[in-house]
Amino acid sequence: MLTNILPPPGLPRRLATQSAVLGIGSGTYLTGSVVFFTLYVGLTPVQVGLGFSLAGLIGLVGSLPLGHLADRIGGQRAWVIGALAGAAAFAAYPLTGGFWTFLLVIAAEATADTLANSGRMVYIAAAVGREDRVRTMAFNRAYLNVGFTVGSGLGAAALALDSRAGLLTLVLANAVGLVLNAIFVARMPAVAPLEETAGPRPSPWGVLRDHPYTALAGLFGVLWLNATLFGEVIPLWAITMTDAPKPLLGALFALNTVMAVALQVRATRGADSIAGSARLLRWAALASVVACPVVGLTSSTHGWVTIGLLALSIVLVTTTELWLSGAQWFLQTEVPPPDQRGAYMGASKSVGGVPKTLGPAALTFLAIHTGAWGWWLIAAIFVLAAVAAGPIVAWVARTPRNGYLIQPATIQR
Protein backbone atom coordinates (compact mmCIF):
# COMPACT_ATOMS: atom_id res chain seq x y z
CA MET A 1 0.00 0.00 0.00
CA LEU A 2 2.84 2.40 0.88
CA THR A 3 4.29 1.91 -2.61
CA ASN A 4 1.30 3.84 -3.99
CA ILE A 5 1.63 6.62 -1.38
CA LEU A 6 5.33 7.09 -0.64
CA PRO A 7 7.71 7.63 -3.59
CA PRO A 8 10.87 5.52 -3.75
CA PRO A 9 13.82 7.03 -1.85
CA GLY A 10 16.30 9.18 -3.69
CA LEU A 11 15.51 11.46 -6.57
CA PRO A 12 11.83 10.39 -6.99
CA ARG A 13 11.12 11.35 -3.39
CA ARG A 14 12.94 14.67 -3.74
CA LEU A 15 10.95 15.44 -6.90
CA ALA A 16 7.70 14.65 -5.12
CA THR A 17 8.65 16.94 -2.22
CA GLN A 18 9.44 19.71 -4.68
CA SER A 19 6.01 19.23 -6.29
CA ALA A 20 4.28 19.54 -2.92
CA VAL A 21 6.16 22.77 -2.11
CA LEU A 22 5.26 24.20 -5.51
CA GLY A 23 1.63 23.17 -5.07
CA ILE A 24 1.33 24.95 -1.72
CA GLY A 25 2.53 28.22 -3.21
CA SER A 26 0.45 28.03 -6.37
CA GLY A 27 -2.64 26.86 -4.51
CA THR A 28 -2.39 29.78 -2.09
CA TYR A 29 -2.14 32.23 -4.99
CA LEU A 30 -4.77 30.78 -7.32
CA THR A 31 -7.41 30.68 -4.60
CA GLY A 32 -7.62 34.45 -4.57
CA SER A 33 -5.78 35.67 -7.65
CA VAL A 34 -8.80 37.38 -9.19
CA VAL A 35 -9.64 39.03 -5.88
CA PHE A 36 -6.05 40.29 -5.58
CA PHE A 37 -5.99 41.86 -9.00
CA THR A 38 -9.39 43.51 -8.65
CA LEU A 39 -9.17 44.75 -5.05
CA TYR A 40 -5.43 45.22 -4.45
CA VAL A 41 -4.25 46.29 -7.91
CA GLY A 42 -7.57 47.93 -8.86
CA LEU A 43 -8.15 46.24 -12.23
CA THR A 44 -11.54 45.55 -13.74
CA PRO A 45 -12.65 41.92 -14.28
CA VAL A 46 -12.33 42.44 -18.05
CA GLN A 47 -8.73 43.61 -17.66
CA VAL A 48 -7.92 40.62 -15.47
CA GLY A 49 -9.45 38.31 -18.06
CA LEU A 50 -7.38 39.89 -20.83
CA GLY A 51 -4.24 39.38 -18.77
CA PHE A 52 -5.01 35.72 -18.22
CA SER A 53 -5.72 35.33 -21.94
CA LEU A 54 -2.32 36.86 -22.71
CA ALA A 55 -0.70 34.37 -20.33
CA GLY A 56 -2.45 31.50 -22.08
CA LEU A 57 -1.36 32.79 -25.49
CA ILE A 58 2.27 32.97 -24.35
CA GLY A 59 2.09 29.41 -23.12
CA LEU A 60 0.58 28.32 -26.42
CA VAL A 61 3.07 30.11 -28.68
CA GLY A 62 6.14 30.04 -26.46
CA SER A 63 6.19 26.36 -25.49
CA LEU A 64 8.10 25.21 -28.56
CA PRO A 65 10.93 27.81 -28.58
CA LEU A 66 11.28 27.72 -24.80
CA GLY A 67 11.30 23.92 -24.88
CA HIS A 68 14.08 24.10 -27.45
CA LEU A 69 15.95 26.49 -25.14
CA ALA A 70 15.63 23.96 -22.32
CA ASP A 71 17.19 21.34 -24.62
CA ARG A 72 20.13 23.63 -25.33
CA ILE A 73 20.93 24.89 -21.82
CA GLY A 74 19.85 21.76 -19.93
CA GLY A 75 16.62 20.95 -18.14
CA GLN A 76 17.88 21.64 -14.63
CA ARG A 77 19.27 25.07 -15.51
CA ALA A 78 16.11 26.03 -17.41
CA TRP A 79 13.98 24.88 -14.47
CA VAL A 80 15.95 26.96 -11.96
CA ILE A 81 16.01 30.06 -14.18
CA GLY A 82 12.28 29.78 -14.83
CA ALA A 83 11.48 29.36 -11.12
CA LEU A 84 13.58 32.36 -10.07
CA ALA A 85 12.18 34.53 -12.85
CA GLY A 86 8.67 33.50 -11.82
CA ALA A 87 9.41 34.41 -8.20
CA ALA A 88 10.61 37.85 -9.31
CA ALA A 89 7.43 38.34 -11.36
CA PHE A 90 5.16 37.44 -8.44
CA ALA A 91 7.13 39.73 -6.13
CA ALA A 92 6.51 42.52 -8.67
CA TYR A 93 2.72 42.05 -8.80
CA PRO A 94 2.06 44.28 -5.76
CA LEU A 95 4.04 47.04 -7.49
CA THR A 96 1.89 47.10 -10.61
CA GLY A 97 0.13 50.40 -10.87
CA GLY A 98 -2.22 49.84 -13.77
CA PHE A 99 -3.31 47.69 -16.66
CA TRP A 100 -0.20 47.97 -18.85
CA THR A 101 2.28 47.17 -16.08
CA PHE A 102 0.02 44.28 -15.11
CA LEU A 103 0.23 42.94 -18.67
CA LEU A 104 4.01 43.30 -18.63
CA VAL A 105 4.38 41.39 -15.36
CA ILE A 106 1.91 38.65 -16.25
CA ALA A 107 3.69 38.16 -19.60
CA ALA A 108 7.00 37.80 -17.76
CA GLU A 109 5.44 35.35 -15.30
CA ALA A 110 3.87 33.25 -18.08
CA THR A 111 7.20 33.10 -19.95
CA ALA A 112 9.03 32.05 -16.79
CA ASP A 113 6.43 29.39 -16.00
CA THR A 114 6.63 27.97 -19.53
CA LEU A 115 10.43 27.77 -19.34
CA ALA A 116 10.31 26.16 -15.90
CA ASN A 117 7.79 23.53 -17.02
CA SER A 118 9.88 22.73 -20.09
CA GLY A 119 12.99 22.41 -17.97
CA ARG A 120 11.21 20.20 -15.45
CA MET A 121 10.10 17.70 -18.09
CA VAL A 122 13.50 17.68 -19.81
CA TYR A 123 15.31 17.15 -16.49
CA ILE A 124 13.04 14.36 -15.23
CA ALA A 125 13.20 12.54 -18.57
CA ALA A 126 17.00 12.65 -18.47
CA ALA A 127 17.56 12.05 -14.75
CA VAL A 128 15.09 9.22 -14.10
CA GLY A 129 15.45 5.82 -15.72
CA ARG A 130 12.91 4.75 -18.30
CA GLU A 131 11.50 2.02 -16.06
CA ASP A 132 10.73 4.51 -13.25
CA ARG A 133 9.93 7.66 -15.24
CA VAL A 134 6.15 7.49 -15.58
CA ARG A 135 5.70 6.30 -12.01
CA THR A 136 7.86 9.18 -10.76
CA MET A 137 5.77 11.67 -12.74
CA ALA A 138 2.62 10.14 -11.28
CA PHE A 139 3.93 10.69 -7.75
CA ASN A 140 4.80 14.26 -8.70
CA ARG A 141 1.23 14.88 -9.87
CA ALA A 142 -0.24 13.32 -6.72
CA TYR A 143 1.98 15.35 -4.39
CA LEU A 144 1.32 18.51 -6.40
CA ASN A 145 -2.39 17.97 -5.73
CA VAL A 146 -1.72 17.49 -2.03
CA GLY A 147 0.25 20.73 -1.93
CA PHE A 148 -2.38 22.53 -3.96
CA THR A 149 -5.08 21.43 -1.51
CA VAL A 150 -3.05 22.73 1.45
CA GLY A 151 -2.35 25.96 -0.44
CA SER A 152 -6.02 26.43 -1.23
CA GLY A 153 -6.78 26.28 2.48
CA LEU A 154 -4.08 28.84 3.23
CA GLY A 155 -5.41 31.05 0.45
CA ALA A 156 -8.92 30.85 1.84
CA ALA A 157 -7.56 31.84 5.26
CA ALA A 158 -5.76 34.82 3.72
CA LEU A 159 -8.97 35.94 2.00
CA ALA A 160 -10.86 35.57 5.27
CA LEU A 161 -8.67 38.33 6.73
CA ASP A 162 -10.45 40.68 4.30
CA SER A 163 -7.47 43.03 4.23
CA ARG A 164 -4.77 44.26 1.89
CA ALA A 165 -2.23 42.37 4.00
CA GLY A 166 -4.12 39.14 3.42
CA LEU A 167 -4.24 39.75 -0.33
CA LEU A 168 -0.53 40.55 -0.38
CA THR A 169 0.13 37.22 1.31
CA LEU A 170 -1.42 35.42 -1.66
CA VAL A 171 1.23 36.47 -4.16
CA LEU A 172 4.21 36.68 -1.83
CA ALA A 173 3.59 33.11 -0.62
CA ASN A 174 3.83 31.92 -4.21
CA ALA A 175 7.00 33.97 -4.75
CA VAL A 176 8.57 32.34 -1.68
CA GLY A 177 7.40 28.93 -2.86
CA LEU A 178 9.08 29.45 -6.23
CA VAL A 179 12.36 30.48 -4.56
CA LEU A 180 12.26 27.33 -2.41
CA ASN A 181 11.41 25.39 -5.55
CA ALA A 182 14.51 26.79 -7.30
CA ILE A 183 16.67 25.81 -4.30
CA PHE A 184 15.25 22.29 -4.34
CA VAL A 185 15.93 21.91 -8.05
CA ALA A 186 19.43 23.40 -7.92
CA ARG A 187 20.40 20.85 -5.26
CA MET A 188 19.17 17.87 -7.27
CA PRO A 189 21.75 15.61 -8.98
CA ALA A 190 23.20 17.09 -12.15
CA VAL A 191 22.61 15.24 -15.42
CA ALA A 192 25.39 14.71 -17.95
CA PRO A 193 24.78 16.48 -21.30
CA LEU A 194 22.87 14.28 -23.71
CA GLU A 195 24.55 12.99 -26.83
CA GLU A 196 23.03 14.75 -29.80
CA THR A 197 21.50 12.77 -32.61
CA ALA A 198 23.54 12.33 -35.78
CA GLY A 199 23.46 14.96 -38.52
CA PRO A 200 23.03 18.72 -38.45
CA ARG A 201 21.26 20.27 -35.48
CA PRO A 202 17.57 20.47 -36.47
CA SER A 203 15.54 23.66 -36.23
CA PRO A 204 13.03 23.58 -33.37
CA TRP A 205 10.31 24.50 -35.85
CA GLY A 206 11.12 21.34 -37.80
CA VAL A 207 9.26 19.43 -35.09
CA LEU A 208 6.04 20.72 -36.61
CA ARG A 209 6.92 18.85 -39.83
CA ASP A 210 6.85 15.57 -37.89
CA HIS A 211 3.28 14.87 -38.94
CA PRO A 212 2.78 11.67 -36.89
CA TYR A 213 3.82 13.51 -33.75
CA THR A 214 1.67 16.56 -34.50
CA ALA A 215 -1.26 14.20 -35.05
CA LEU A 216 -0.53 12.70 -31.63
CA ALA A 217 -0.37 16.20 -30.13
CA GLY A 218 -3.75 16.99 -31.67
CA LEU A 219 -5.14 13.78 -30.16
CA PHE A 220 -3.86 14.85 -26.74
CA GLY A 221 -5.55 18.21 -27.20
CA VAL A 222 -8.89 16.58 -28.01
CA LEU A 223 -8.67 14.17 -25.08
CA TRP A 224 -7.76 16.99 -22.69
CA LEU A 225 -11.11 18.57 -23.50
CA ASN A 226 -12.23 16.42 -20.59
CA ALA A 227 -10.56 19.03 -18.35
CA THR A 228 -12.86 21.65 -19.86
CA LEU A 229 -15.82 19.39 -19.14
CA PHE A 230 -14.73 19.03 -15.52
CA GLY A 231 -13.72 22.60 -14.79
CA GLU A 232 -16.28 24.59 -16.77
CA VAL A 233 -19.02 22.74 -18.64
CA ILE A 234 -20.25 20.26 -16.02
CA PRO A 235 -20.38 22.91 -13.23
CA LEU A 236 -22.24 25.31 -15.52
CA TRP A 237 -24.63 22.55 -16.54
CA ALA A 238 -25.21 21.54 -12.91
CA ILE A 239 -26.09 25.11 -11.93
CA THR A 240 -28.30 26.01 -14.89
CA MET A 241 -29.86 22.74 -16.05
CA THR A 242 -30.31 20.58 -12.94
CA ASP A 243 -31.80 20.85 -9.45
CA ALA A 244 -28.46 20.05 -7.79
CA PRO A 245 -27.63 22.33 -4.84
CA LYS A 246 -24.82 24.79 -5.58
CA PRO A 247 -22.63 23.63 -2.63
CA LEU A 248 -22.42 20.26 -4.42
CA LEU A 249 -19.85 21.79 -6.78
CA GLY A 250 -17.29 22.00 -3.99
CA ALA A 251 -17.82 18.33 -3.17
CA LEU A 252 -17.37 17.38 -6.83
CA PHE A 253 -14.08 19.25 -7.04
CA ALA A 254 -12.97 17.56 -3.82
CA LEU A 255 -13.85 14.16 -5.31
CA ASN A 256 -11.57 14.90 -8.27
CA THR A 257 -8.71 15.89 -5.96
CA VAL A 258 -9.05 12.80 -3.78
CA MET A 259 -9.02 10.52 -6.83
CA ALA A 260 -5.99 12.33 -8.30
CA VAL A 261 -4.04 11.92 -5.07
CA ALA A 262 -5.07 8.35 -4.29
CA LEU A 263 -5.18 6.76 -7.75
CA GLN A 264 -2.74 8.61 -10.06
CA VAL A 265 0.16 6.20 -9.41
CA ARG A 266 -2.02 3.10 -9.75
CA ALA A 267 -3.60 4.45 -12.95
CA THR A 268 -0.24 4.58 -14.73
CA ARG A 269 0.16 0.81 -14.72
CA GLY A 270 0.56 -0.22 -18.33
CA ALA A 271 1.97 3.14 -19.43
CA ASP A 272 5.39 1.59 -19.95
CA SER A 273 5.17 0.62 -23.60
CA ILE A 274 3.76 1.81 -26.89
CA ALA A 275 0.97 -0.78 -26.79
CA GLY A 276 0.13 -0.03 -23.16
CA SER A 277 0.01 3.71 -23.75
CA ALA A 278 -2.26 3.31 -26.78
CA ARG A 279 -4.56 1.14 -24.66
CA LEU A 280 -4.70 3.79 -21.90
CA LEU A 281 -5.53 6.47 -24.47
CA ARG A 282 -8.46 4.39 -25.73
CA TRP A 283 -9.67 3.75 -22.18
CA ALA A 284 -9.36 7.45 -21.38
CA ALA A 285 -11.45 8.41 -24.41
CA LEU A 286 -14.12 5.80 -23.65
CA ALA A 287 -14.44 6.97 -20.04
CA SER A 288 -15.36 10.43 -21.33
CA VAL A 289 -17.70 8.88 -23.90
CA VAL A 290 -19.69 7.29 -21.07
CA ALA A 291 -19.55 10.45 -18.93
CA CYS A 292 -21.30 12.63 -21.51
CA PRO A 293 -24.74 10.94 -21.62
CA VAL A 294 -24.57 10.45 -17.85
CA VAL A 295 -24.39 14.22 -17.45
CA GLY A 296 -27.13 14.71 -20.04
CA LEU A 297 -29.51 12.51 -18.03
CA THR A 298 -29.38 14.88 -15.07
CA SER A 299 -31.58 17.44 -16.83
CA SER A 300 -34.55 15.09 -16.28
CA THR A 301 -33.73 13.63 -12.86
CA HIS A 302 -34.24 15.00 -9.37
CA GLY A 303 -32.72 14.99 -5.92
CA TRP A 304 -30.26 12.27 -4.98
CA VAL A 305 -30.44 10.69 -8.42
CA THR A 306 -29.10 13.90 -9.94
CA ILE A 307 -26.37 14.13 -7.33
CA GLY A 308 -25.38 10.51 -7.89
CA LEU A 309 -25.21 10.90 -11.66
CA LEU A 310 -23.13 14.08 -11.40
CA ALA A 311 -20.74 12.32 -9.02
CA LEU A 312 -20.47 9.41 -11.45
CA SER A 313 -19.65 11.80 -14.29
CA ILE A 314 -16.84 13.36 -12.23
CA VAL A 315 -15.46 9.89 -11.49
CA LEU A 316 -15.44 9.15 -15.22
CA VAL A 317 -13.80 12.40 -16.38
CA THR A 318 -11.24 12.11 -13.59
CA THR A 319 -10.49 8.57 -14.72
CA THR A 320 -9.87 10.00 -18.18
CA GLU A 321 -7.42 12.47 -16.64
CA LEU A 322 -5.52 9.74 -14.77
CA TRP A 323 -5.17 7.35 -17.73
CA LEU A 324 -4.42 10.13 -20.19
CA SER A 325 -1.68 11.56 -17.97
CA GLY A 326 0.18 8.23 -17.74
CA ALA A 327 0.05 7.60 -21.49
CA GLN A 328 1.10 11.17 -22.30
CA TRP A 329 4.08 11.07 -19.93
CA PHE A 330 5.40 7.93 -21.60
CA LEU A 331 4.86 9.06 -25.17
CA GLN A 332 6.20 12.59 -24.67
CA THR A 333 9.44 11.35 -23.11
CA GLU A 334 10.09 8.21 -25.15
CA VAL A 335 9.10 9.24 -28.67
CA PRO A 336 11.38 12.29 -29.20
CA PRO A 337 15.17 11.99 -29.60
CA PRO A 338 16.59 12.60 -26.08
CA ASP A 339 18.29 15.86 -27.09
CA GLN A 340 15.02 17.25 -28.53
CA ARG A 341 12.56 16.36 -25.79
CA GLY A 342 11.95 19.99 -24.84
CA ALA A 343 11.15 21.05 -28.38
CA TYR A 344 8.86 18.05 -28.95
CA MET A 345 7.01 18.54 -25.68
CA GLY A 346 6.67 22.24 -26.48
CA ALA A 347 5.24 21.43 -29.89
CA SER A 348 2.80 19.02 -28.27
CA LYS A 349 1.61 21.76 -25.92
CA SER A 350 1.31 24.29 -28.75
CA VAL A 351 -0.55 22.00 -31.16
CA GLY A 352 -2.64 20.40 -28.44
CA GLY A 353 -3.51 23.82 -27.09
CA VAL A 354 -5.56 24.69 -30.16
CA PRO A 355 -8.47 22.31 -29.35
CA LYS A 356 -8.21 23.30 -25.67
CA THR A 357 -8.47 26.98 -26.63
CA LEU A 358 -11.51 26.48 -28.84
CA GLY A 359 -13.05 23.87 -26.56
CA PRO A 360 -14.70 25.96 -23.82
CA ALA A 361 -16.90 27.95 -26.20
CA ALA A 362 -17.71 24.97 -28.44
CA LEU A 363 -18.47 22.50 -25.65
CA THR A 364 -20.50 25.03 -23.67
CA PHE A 365 -22.63 25.72 -26.75
CA LEU A 366 -23.15 22.02 -27.43
CA ALA A 367 -24.04 21.21 -23.84
CA ILE A 368 -26.03 24.23 -22.70
CA HIS A 369 -27.61 25.68 -25.83
CA THR A 370 -28.68 22.50 -27.59
CA GLY A 371 -30.24 20.68 -24.67
CA ALA A 372 -29.30 17.26 -23.40
CA TRP A 373 -28.81 15.83 -26.89
CA GLY A 374 -25.74 18.03 -27.30
CA TRP A 375 -23.94 15.72 -24.88
CA TRP A 376 -24.22 12.95 -27.47
CA LEU A 377 -22.35 15.13 -29.96
CA ILE A 378 -19.62 15.72 -27.38
CA ALA A 379 -19.49 11.98 -26.76
CA ALA A 380 -19.01 11.46 -30.51
CA ILE A 381 -15.86 13.59 -30.40
CA PHE A 382 -14.36 11.24 -27.82
CA VAL A 383 -15.51 8.19 -29.81
CA LEU A 384 -13.48 9.47 -32.76
CA ALA A 385 -10.51 10.00 -30.45
CA ALA A 386 -10.80 6.42 -29.18
CA VAL A 387 -10.87 5.06 -32.73
CA ALA A 388 -7.92 7.21 -33.83
CA ALA A 389 -5.68 6.52 -30.82
CA GLY A 390 -4.32 3.15 -31.95
CA PRO A 391 -3.49 4.10 -35.57
CA ILE A 392 -1.91 7.43 -34.55
CA VAL A 393 0.31 5.85 -31.89
CA ALA A 394 1.35 3.11 -34.31
CA TRP A 395 2.21 5.75 -36.94
CA VAL A 396 4.33 7.60 -34.39
CA ALA A 397 6.12 4.44 -33.30
CA ARG A 398 7.20 3.34 -36.78
CA THR A 399 8.48 6.79 -37.86
CA PRO A 400 12.22 7.50 -37.36
CA ARG A 401 13.21 10.94 -36.05
CA ASN A 402 16.63 12.11 -37.17
CA GLY A 403 17.97 8.57 -36.92
CA TYR A 404 16.14 7.81 -33.66
CA LEU A 405 13.42 5.15 -33.48
CA ILE A 406 11.43 3.96 -30.50
CA GLN A 407 10.52 0.29 -30.40
CA PRO A 408 7.65 -1.35 -28.46
CA ALA A 409 9.99 -2.76 -25.80
CA THR A 410 13.37 -1.15 -26.39
CA ILE A 411 14.79 2.10 -27.63
CA GLN A 412 17.28 1.85 -30.47
CA ARG A 413 19.61 4.38 -32.07
Labels describing this entry:
single chain; 413 residues; Growth Hormone, Chain: A; 2 domains; two-stranded antiparallel ribbon; 14 helices; 2 strands; globular
Explain what the structure shows.
With 413 residues, the chain is mainly α. It folds into 2 domains: 2-186, MFS general substrate transporter like domains (Growth Hormone, Chain: A); 205-404, MFS general substrate transporter like domains (Growth Hormone, Chain: A, Up-down Bundle). It is 77% helix and 1% strand. The chain has helices at 11-31, 33-40, 45-73, 75-92, 99-127, 130-160, 164-186, 211-223, 225-241, 248-267, 274-297, 303-334, 341-368, 374-397; strands at 405-406, 411-412. The chain has a two-stranded antiparallel sheet. Helix 6 crosses helix 12 and helix 10 runs parallel beside helix 12. The longest helix is centred in the C-terminal third of the chain and has 32 residues, at 303-334. Mean pLDDT is 89; it is low at 409-413.
CATH class of the largest domain: Mainly Alpha
Low-confidence runs (pLDDT<50, min 5 residues)?
Answer: 409-413
Major β-sheet strand ordering: 1-2
Largest β-sheet summary: 2 strands, antiparallel
What is the ordering of alpha helices and beta strands? HHHHHHHHHHHHHHEE
Mean of pLDDT: 89
Radius of gyration: 21 Å
Structural class: mainly alpha
| Number of spatially distinct domains | 2
CATH evolutionary superfamily of the largest domain: MFS general substrate transporter like domains
